[in-house]
Amino acid sequence: MRLIVGEAGGTKGVFLVNEDRAKLLPEQGGDLRGLIGGEAVPAYQDLSASELAVSDIRPLLPVANPGKIICLGLNYVDHIKEGGYDIPDYPALFMRSLNSLMPAGAPMVRPNCSHKLDYEVELMLIVGKGGRHIREADALDHVFGYTVFNDGSVRDFQRKTHQWTPGKNFDSTGAVGPVVVTPDELPEGAAGLKIESRVGDEILQSANTSEMMWPVAKTIATISQYTTLDPGDLIAMGTPPGVGHAKTPPRWLKPGETVEVEIEGIGICANPIVDEGADQQAGAA
User: Which of 44, 50, 110, 130 has the least CB density, counted as fewest CB within 10 Å?
Assistant: First the structure.
């Protein structure tokens, strides 16, 4: 399945996607919680809802209130090297807050206290079945679906301490969605997919998800050693090389640009860059 949580014609809900068309699923509310709980989805042709263009849907977060948002910081060898880090033998893990996330299409906000806003294209998984001490061999059974994530990072604040929390948690810097794809439509563990970020014709990052040091199954098994994973939790799988702070000169995102992050077989997450304050003005207009 390909799914979008969003709003169209004043109605919020979950839409089943068929190429560039979509239909509203009945009685699903404002996010994927019902489907994550195992509710059956009718075939597209059996839905009685009117068909509409995917472009007419304003995306919302796939999970409105995830219990945990867990991110891998170093998962591609060349990205580790460009950041000046040693190759780790355990994944670098950090948490994001809900306030730091926003859906595809919404403004990504460059804060007033820093102009060093960076981009990071990442695969993100949505936990479908919870558990603790999940075996790697069973881990993929715990995935509901995959989406695209832009782990927008304010680099000078990230580097202020050994803990990355400030730079990874500015409001409205982590873009999610819009499409969620169930595992049956992708290679096992979403491996072997082209992953790319760009602004206009400028390609910023380009790699493949097969290059991850900790693939999806190993990541789930590792995280579930220390915490119980719950349905609806989000796990971001780290970014490949090419981030802005590692370029010469550094390549920061600027207001007026639109950053796109794309993963083959899933889709594009595009967000305009605005200065802090401009996002509130846009919302009030």
Answer: 50
